[in-house]
Amino acid sequence: MPASDSPPHDHDHDPAPAPIDFHDPQWYLNRELTWLAFNRRVLGEGQDERVPLLERVFFLAVVGSNLDEFFMKRIGGLKQQVGAGVRELSVDGRLPQEQIDACAVVVRDLLREQEELEVELKRLLARRQIRIVPYADLSLAEKSLAERFFLDQVYPLLTPQGMDPAHPFPFISNLSINLLVSVRYPDSEYSYLNRIKVPVSDDMPRFLAFGEAGHWITLEDLIGNNLEVLFPEMVVETCETFRVTRNAITEPNQEQANDLLQMIESALRERKFAEIVRLEVGWGMEEAHRGMLAAELGVDEEGDVFAVDGIVGKRDLCEIARLDRPELRFPPHRPVDNPELRDDAANIFHVIRQHGSILLQHPYESFDTSVERYLREASTDPRVRAIKMTLYRTAGRSRVIEYLIDAAQNGKQVAVVLELKARFDEQANIRWAGTLEEAGIHVTYGVVGLKTHCKVIFVVRRDDDGLRRYAHIGTGNYHAGTARMYCDFGLLTCDPDIGADLTELFNYLTTGYTPMRRYRKLLCSPRMLKKALLQKIEREIRGHGVDSPGLIQLKANALEDRDVVAALYRASQAGVRVDLVIRDTCRLRPGIPGLSEHIRVVSVVGRFLEHARLFYFHNQGNEEYFIGSADLMQRNLESRVEVCVPVESPKLRKLLRQALDLQLASRRNVWEMQPDGEYRRREAKGRAGATCIHHTLIKQAEKRLAASDRTPGKKKTGKKGG
User: Catalytic pick from 453, 472, 598, 694?
Assistant: First the structure.
């Protein structure tokens, strides 16, 4: 029918589109599945032929380590919910068991890709004279060296454990490598089963090389080929590898614990003996042995047992990734000094006072010559009266701890809020608590019921014009090791309003009283931060217009909170553009017409681990930038003490803008989420597009330092930090 002959259509009577129900599960992705999708992106770096070979091995190992943690924390927690009969649906409408089942499908597919990559990388390593081989492939000379090493260094550490009525099934420790050995007497058909724990430790590596041919074997392979020493005059029938993963989610009995320290120590003991959530067995293990292990360990043979092709416990491949072969690694990176701090002869407090605030960008700028220097000088400066600090994770040999002890010994008032419940760092933090208290430092453990996750070093100094408060507020932990690998921001400042806010914050942390304190500039959780973020999103909606289009840009490790996701959906519906740089978990679905077509979600995965949190609001031209410790997760916004600080200096905002724009525009190391939750790797275009995003940021930091050295009147040291 011609258009002119079409019946008239009264648009005024078209039914209005039904309003979207923001509680509808279809608009939210599953937290666990999106986290697994992140690990697929990490594996993608290992599959990328542009990445140096040993770095690809590293990414393969990281996926293994991440999956271990996933089972310990996420699957362990879900299994607890199943055991407790929890029927509450997740935000995306799934029961706990449904989430476990969905994760199992993805995990098994991920493991298949991981195993294929292992085969490929072993082939490429062999071309570069790094051969991971079975014991049988060693030469006679190499075997002789290996046997001597076994007798001298390994055999004394081994304790075979029989399994029969007189020897009950032994305890299997979390993530340990184990051998299940079946033996019999030569004149008998009866088999005996034995367990041998492979003694991998800091001084006993998993991978061993003998001779100079570049042959590497595993420690369990060495043991398995010398079993006649452990079982003399016996026939070895089978030697099979297995490994268990235990639940890391324990519920300490607070009524029985006299204090928090005792409660955490109790939880660690419980974790050691916690329920097993995964059994890994070497490919080809006999069905009878597999079934016996599943029964003895109390796991479901169909759902909880994973047959592994290749190396069981692939996280240990990091030992190979650390080999000293510079030509197979990323170019060496030494962090440069922050341009404002390159004169290490100047008093750092004078420098901060001169600039008002200084933005730090790790790992591109040195942690040693910025954060550690700040604390080191505070510990010895005779004008410093007090140092207060939050501590979540730190290094095993920590200069941060040393400087705090020095400060106390120098007569300064030192207070540390130490978070004992930092997952997998509890034991180290208990040890540090004792060390600090012995030095006379006032140690508290934060507020009951809340984790202290904020990153703050607060210094009170008597300057010539009176007491002045200085602060470092960051997005990352006070850990020199991770500061070389994690991308984080930090702010050194003497802003008086921020100083006043931190006085309130530490009074809250050391007493637990009055969480609703009066903060002038800081956004703190659990009471203020989420409310402020939601208000700023709504303000962006109200202010959006043709003359001043709204823009929200959020960078975080995770976006999980449903209220924040719903607010961002509303912003998109109003026409506000929303850019999200989310490293791993993301519940939001971008690009859905009528809901999120103005939202894009990207994930950056590369040489360094993205860890910074940055929140930007256009605010009708009155732009706001915040950095801080909080991810956009319900736990961070409602159940933790977090701090976000505004960055107000135009110069520092320009630096944040450059970093954010680069991540949003880059073609390399960037993955973009599709409406269904799948991610597509952006295709590199041209030489610039093929450049690693973190390499670009390294060069930018070096250029900033070089440009500063050319500034007239500036002291030129050109020094690079340690």
Answer: 453
